[in-house]
Specification:
The complex is a heterodimer of chains A (about 110) and B (about 110). Chain A has no helices and eleven strands. Chain A is mostly beta strands and about 110 residues long. In chain A, the strands form two sheets. In chain A, strands 2, 4, 5, 9, 10 and 11 form a six-stranded mixed sheet that branches. A five-stranded antiparallel sheet of chain A has the order 1-3-8-7-6, with no helix packed on it. In chain A, β4 and β5 form a beta hairpin. Chain A is globular. Chain B has about 110 residues and is an all-beta fold. Chain B is built from no helices and eleven strands. In chain B, strands 2, 4, 5, 6, 9, 10 and 11 form a seven-stranded mixed sheet that branches. A four-stranded antiparallel sheet of chain B has the order 1-3-8-7, with no helix packed on it. Classes of the chains: A mainly beta (about 110), B mainly beta (about 110). Chains A and B meet through β4, β5 and β9 of A and β5 and β10 of B.
């Protein structure tokens, strides 16, 4: 069974701090996605990473795909209250199914 | 802007009722999905469809059925709602084997 474990599960930080969220699996994925979900809403796609070792930047967010395509990280620089939400990673192995991570709930305090 | 819409944001039904959840996408995507999301259990796939009139069971299909008569529309049906089907239901679509999905806003279903 493919599993994606995210850490930490919960994170509460002050505005301006940096943070990193990890997404780990023993399985290889052809691509990996990161989503952010706000309470009562559906997940919103942030980025897709495809190549092992790939790094993508989206303003203050930096996403990295592991060399072996089994893990990924999301780094947020100078977090803001607007970054608050549930962050989900999802692995895609080339079939129709996506494997979702357990989620990291981030709260950024002003 | 790409869009996935769901027919209701909030729904309250009684045990035993037949419930229809509708999802429409305007991106001409081949694939559509229904998930439920519960605290501590994450997103679980109920059914997906890779073409009109085609459907495949996901991880938790029991108590649900689906219908896809048109490419843009994917319906989830609870044949006889039960309290353990109280959940957030999320619809998603994706183009081919693109490796990413777009989600709708979700339907929060409460079964009393």
């Amino acid at each position: 069974t493919q599993l994606l474990e995210q850490s930490p599960q919960f994170l509460s930080i002050q505005e301006g701090e940096n943070l990193t969220v990890y997404c780990n699996s023993s399985s290889v994925f052809s691509s990996l996605q990161w989503y952010r979900q706000e309470p009562g809403e559906g997940p919103v796609l942030l980025v897709t990473v495809v190549t092992g070792g790939e790094v993508k930047k989206l303003k203050r967010l930096t996403f990295q795909f592991g060399d072996a395509r089994k893990d990924s990280s999301l780094h947020i620089t100078a977090a803001q209250p607007g970054d608050t939400g549930l962050y989900l990673c999802a692995g895609f192995s080339g079939t129709y199914k996506y494997i979702f991570g357990t989620g990291t709930r981030l709260k950024v305090l002003a | 802007d790409v869009k996935v819409t769901q027919s209701s944001r909030y729904l309250v039904k009684r045990t035993g009722e037949k419930v229809f959840l509708e999802c429409v996408q305007d991106m001409d995507h081949e694939n559509m999905f229904w998930y439920r999301q519960d605290p501590g259990l994450g997103l679980r796939l109920i059914y997906f469809s890779y073409d009109v009139k085609m459907k495949e069971k996901g991880d938790i299909p029991e108590g649900y059925s689906v219908s896809r008569e048109k490419k843009e529309r994917f319906s989830l049906i609870l044949e006889s709602a039960s309290t353990n089907q109280t959940s957030m239901y999320l619809c998603a679509s994706s183009p081919g084997l693109a490796g990413f999905q777009f989600f709708g806003p979700g339907t929060r279903l409460t079964v009393l």
